[in-house]
Design brief:
Layout lengths: L2 E5 L2 E4 L4 E8 L7 E7 L6 E6 L6 E3 L7 E6 L4 E6 L8 E8 L15 E2 L3 E6 L1
Parallel strand pairs: 2-11
Antiparallel strand pairs: 1-3, 3-8, 4-5, 4-9, 5-6, 7-8, 9-10, 9-11
């Protein structure tokens, strides 16, 4: 199992940018698919972005498409989420998650991921 630790969150004004990082410890990081999810107060957890083990495939929620970019550096055991043009509705606790080598069309389903970080707060002020 892999352990995940997020960093890079904080407070930013609307229109600003943040880059989240998720550092993984444990073996075989490069074999995991990775995802970012978020949960706003009073709302259910929602899918944000996914990247395959090889970085060939990426998927995004419609609400972040064109503004967020997921990437990974397998040599550094780290996955990133670059967030641009942030909006107040992006305010949430963001979680990274590691999933099995292949998720196929289940990439957006949180229950298919095996390991989760502790989460990090992102607050966008208007």
């Amino acid at each position: 199992q892999v352990q995940l630790v997020e960093s890079g969150g904080g407070l930013v004004q609307a229109g600003g940018s943040l880059r989240l990082s998720c550092a993984a410890s444990g073996r075989s990081f490069s074999t995991y698919t990775m995802g970012w999810f978020r949960q706003a107060p009073g709302k259910e957890r929602e899918f944000v972005a996914h990247i395959s083990w090889s970085s060939v495939n990426t998927y995004y929620a419609d609400s972040v498409k064109g503004r967020f970019t997921i990437s990974r550096d397998n040599a550094k055991n780290t996955v990133y989420l670059q967030m641009n043009s942030l909006k107040p509705e992006d305010t949430a606790v963001y979680y990274c998650a590691a999933g099995p080598h292949y998720l196929g069309s289940d990439y957006y389903r949180g229950e298919r991921y095996n390991s989760w970080g502790q989460g990090i707060q992102v607050t966008v002020s208007s």
